[in-house]
Sequence to fold (420 residues):
Amino acid sequence: MFHNAAEQVPAYGHFLDARGVDPDRVRTLDDFRSVPPVTKENYVRAYPLPERCRGGTLDGCDTVALSSGSSGQPTVWPRRLVDELAATERFAEIFRTFGADQYRTLAVICFPLGNWVGGMFTAAACRHLTTQGFRLTVATPGNVVDEILRVIDALGPFYDQVVLLGYPPFVKNVIDRGSGWPARKLKLVFAGEVFSERWRDLIAERAGIADPIAHTAALYGTADAGVLGIETPRTVRLRRELSGTTFGGGRVPTLVEYDPEHRYFETDGGALLFTADGAVPLIRYDIGDEGGLLPDNVVYVYGRSLFAVSLYGANVYPENVAEALEADDIVGWTTGRFVLRTPENGNGDRLLDITVELAPGFAGEGREALVAEAIRAHVPRVNSEFAHYVPADRQLPTVRFRPVGDPDNFPVGVKHRYSR
Fold:
């Protein structure tokens, strides 16, 4: 794949040449590991879209997905039918574990529908499963709770089980709003966010799921390359064993299995790199995810903790919030530094929490609502994922103030981290 991309993808050939890499000299895995990684900055944003495709053209690309960038400008990811078919095999593993090859199954797509990767891509993969003998019917209400519940009430009685596929906090909203779940023999497929095992147990209890290990599963996927890996009962058991241990300094990542014939993973320090074929081939791609590799084709993922935070599957970037804090009635008494968090409340919901640093000599009492409303008004304008993925009643952040140099949030003398 490396040699093919170097020869047929104009942008990648130029990328290598500009860095003095002769593709003919790359013959072993050790040679391959010396090839500079590509990133969104040095490759995706540096070259026009057609030049990142084979032959320098979009010919053969059947559809596209868009992802919101840090500036709100979308990144376009073209897709081919063959890309969907490869990802379908990962969905097949999950649905086979659910028994959907034997039992009549209603799959309800709860991801947002439109140009975003989640909904349309998932719906396509699930429909492909019907051609493989799975007893599956796909419903596509999207991320509209009332419509989801209406579909389930109308069709659920005709099926042996119902599978909800969506972002974790949104699926929880659906379950909290609905009723009669035990009779539906519910199964759940998540994507987009890391959640705790405590949260998995909480949602399973509310949904009447007796076996959360076998009947819930998370996908590790990106708009860039589709599905990269999936949770299996084996990785869920391992993750539950790791909960509460010192693995990763007490952080419990998502653990997924991947197909080494479909995706090739490496690590570079604490960063995950992957190589993936597609309409836009990606070679040693550094997406910014932290994690590592375990035996038997297992990858663990912490996510992009130094950059964006994820809420309802939407990436919330520091730049989005920084622009809101530059308003005339705010900029004078804050430093512009802040910390993004998405803590989980006692009800199992994730919230957007923003700690803002006050300028020296200023107090913030009574101004929390002003800052929160400025952020709520601005972020949806520049981040289409936030506007469409996050329910309107969850877009208002919790804002708190801390004095300049606060050691927990704004320690002096170290590089500031805008997200935790």
